[in-house]
Amino acid sequence: MSRISSIASAGRRVLPNHWDLIAFAVIMAVLAAIARGYHGIVAPLPPPDVPVISLDYSELPYYAARTALRMFAALAASFVFTFTYATLAAKSRRAEMLLIPLLDILQSVPILGFLSFTVTFFLGLFPGNVLGAELAAIFAIFTSQAWNMAFSLYQSLRTVPRDLDEVSRGYRLTGWQKFWQLEAPFAVPGLIWNTMMSMSGGWFFVVASEAITVGDTTITLPGVGSYIAKANDAGRWDAILAAVATMGVVILLYDQLLFRPIIAWAGKFRVELSASQEVERSWVLELLQRTNWIRIGYRPVVAGLRSVSFWRMTPPRLFPPNAVAPSPVASRILDVAWIVAVAALTVYALWSVVAFVGTELAWPDVLNVVQLTFYTLLRVIVLMALASAFWVPVSIWIGLRPRWAEAVQPIAQFLAAFPVNLLFGAAVSLVLIFHLNPDIWLSLLIVFGTQWYIVFNTIGGAAAFPNDLREAAANFRVHGWDWWRKVILPGVMPYYLTGAITASGGSWNASIVAEYVKWKDQLVTAHGVGAYIAEATDKGDFPKIVLGVAVMSIFVTLFNRLFWRRLYAHAERRLRL
Amino acid sequence: MLDVTSSILLDVKNVSQTYATGSGEAANPVLQDVSMSLREGEIVSLLGRSGCGKSTLLRLVSGLTRPTSGTVSISGEPVDGPAEGVAMVFQSFALFPWLTVLDNVEIGPRAQGVPLEETRKRALQAIDIIGLDGFESAYPKELSGGMRQRVGFARALVVQPKILLMDEPFSALDVLTAETLRTDLLDLWQEKRMPIKSILMVTHNIEEAVLMSDRILVLSSNPGRIAAEIAIKLPQPRDRLDPEFRQLVDRIYALMTQRPEPKAAAQSGGFSMPLPLVSTNSLAGMLEEIAAPPYNGQADLPHLADSLQLEIDDLFPLGETLQLLKLAEFAEGDIKLTPAGKRFVDMDVDQRKRLFAETLLANIPLAAHIKRVLDERPSHRAPAVRFREELEDHMSEDYAERTLRAIINLGRYSELFAYDENAQAFSYENPQ
Prior knowledge:
The structure holds two protein chains of two kinds.
Chain A: H1 2-14, H2 18-39, H3 60-91, H4 93-108, H5 111-125, H6 130-158, H7 162-170, H8 175-210, E1 211-214, E2 217-220, H9 224-234, H10 237-266, H11 283-290, H12 292-309, H13 328-358, H14 363-399, H15 402-416, H16 424-433, H17 438-441, H18 443-448, H19 451-463, H20 467-475, H21 480-514, E3 516-519, E4 522-525, H22 529-539, H23 542-575
Antiparallel strand pairs in A: 1-2, 3-4
Chain B: H1 2-6, E1 8-20, E2 27-39, E3 43-47, H2 54-62, E4 69-74, E5 77-78, E6 86-89, H3 101-111, H4 116-130, H5 145-157, E7 163-167, H6 175-190, E8 198-203, H7 206-212, E9 215-220, E10 225-231, H8 243-256, H9 280-291, E11 298-300, H10 301-308, H11 312-324, E12 328-331, E13 334-337, H12 339-346, H13 349-363, H14 365-376, E14 381-383, H15 384-392, H16 397-414, E15 418-420, E16 425-427
């Protein structure tokens, strides 16, 4: 008896169980999709007159795989960037002085406006090869993710708990060891969360960057984005719907296969004293952790990586270690030299931009662009206000009902990933049929994708609102307007602002797409800097693009600094529960 | 004589440590001219209040920080970076939440490149000694505070240090757990089951220091200096109720509440005096406790600490504030109500506030100064930053901030002046 049971248990450890089968199937499917997607990447660029994109539904899975793969490549690039850039900024004081403000501005630059440059640049790198166009698209997605991931890592690196830092130094870990034992793990939860947020934005950019016309060059990469562009050109409603469904499936798969497992796994990196009540779960992760074969497979990998993380690697020292502390005077002189160098570089960069723009444009153009930017600013403000006025009460209502919140929050997150291009047909048709004013009605497209950030953050805030405060409010019979003003609105404010800041940034970007809308051969435009940039891109008019993007960046930066940051700092200080 | 010097493990000579203040120029000494040594086979406690630099001294010894002047040497070797042969146990445990107990314990030797098998052997041995068997694959989150600190001890033992440094290792634990851990540690020490040659411990718990140490170094605050050295000859295990034990505890309480020399406090209008941030409710509560039986106006500090369940870091700031306000005074390890303090206890709320306002104005120069400025100004408003800058001329930014918070709190309670947090300004206006 005991012998049989011992054999059975021994067998169970090695023989595949049903978990193995499912896991195997899932992994193979992912591998196959990647292989199929990779196949076309290095093919030579087809001649311009051959239609690359077919609106046949059966091609959609292939396009979806290509798009998803592009997203993945961009994600990988973002990680590489994040780990080098943010680490450098956190470790070197002088690098920090330059890198962090740079990152801050990059965050405010409307990436979509720069698409034309990057496309030209990458096409030039690989003439005649589709790889250049691929890289350009990947770069566009990269720019929508990398900045905020780098910020997240930088902030984590700067806020490593003091006691853990002392342990690492006290037990004499080298820089390399400390990075992998302490700093990187500590940064994981924030980084994952930011990556996921960036991913939503990424879908919007991948769609915009797959089919792009810069002057005479038209680039069409096989992918869902090009499919949508083609469907818009052809005015095919059914194809749009098919694209919507496909996007839905791809986003869902990304979420279930990639992000849920990672989030569930990242739970252990949270620095907190007690086990948290809320444990993220993922069926994929549980599958992987329960599967014997896979566990046997990854154990040596984990052990190997752990050994690597303990390599006694020290960077080569540029100078011999100082016996005495470096003199403050020498350090001050170096600082000054560094600042002067950076300032000189800045002046040179500014000058070259002005010179470039000045070849074709003069002051009246600048004034014109500033005026257009004011229109767009007005649009963003009004639409954000409208979206907030509508969604905040609705989201609070939902957030206070846990069962609703649980169902709605993922849907909102999901909707945030939907690219606005999908609505072009509807927008153009409605504007033309009802003779609507595009300056007003196209504005709605600006918040189409971004309002969801407000929704799911506010729902989160309302769900986290302390129950005792709700009970106290009910007990003292606070109701009506008083309840909104004194109880719930201050309570969700920090959460709402987090969502609103993201939404506001996204809206500026969206304006480049949403103010200049094409459906079949009809073009509807609104007055605004977004349309200005989009039109200049279509015509390949580079000085105009630079001017438009520069003015927009300045507006966005100022808008963020003067309005959002202050509001957020105030909310953090006074209203954080 | 020669014999003694040969067994000296740790030697700290004339060490000073200063942190630059906000302006960057004037420096505030945290430690001033501290010398001490640690011999083989002894447990030494650094006892002092928060802010006396005892943790800084421990970090200087471990090489985590470097002194502004003076030298630290271990076994004759000068310390100029994280030192070999010492290991630290932290108040907050400082475990890596993403590593299991075993991985946490192994981190020291693995970082030094000790072969894997050797590391594992040593780790399991340490886990066994410290009583963690069975918890090897648990994550710190799953453990109670006591078990977490045991991991902290095992992690320290596994690097086979000569000196074990402990930074308030029991103060984050509940009373029962702390006692168990102390006893276990002392047992291991007595039985010489640990590879450690001596222990240097930081604590603010007087009884803990008397219970565990062979010598206690009492540090004074602002700047940190060694105020007294007390050798404890009582045999182990020690009994807290032993009269000799109680006497020692009393003596240390008296030492630590000695009125500081009235040095620079008088000059510069009393601005160099940092105020502790205490709750006015606790102040009133403490006065009432001292006035009531069994103390009847004069309380023995160790007893009072016990009955109020206060550590000295809570008890002393309260007592000191009362002393500053001349509502109570320290005397030989006791605290005694003054006549004003006795009157305060019998008053109703409004009377108390009035008395408090009077004594605040009379005894705390900063309060009088703020009132004077408010009176002088036609608007009767004054921004906080003005006073903060004045304070920062005499103390570090942290102390200035805390002193400002303290005076705001006292001023609000006594209704001497109001403070608007949004505008960051003092005024007389309270909402009517």
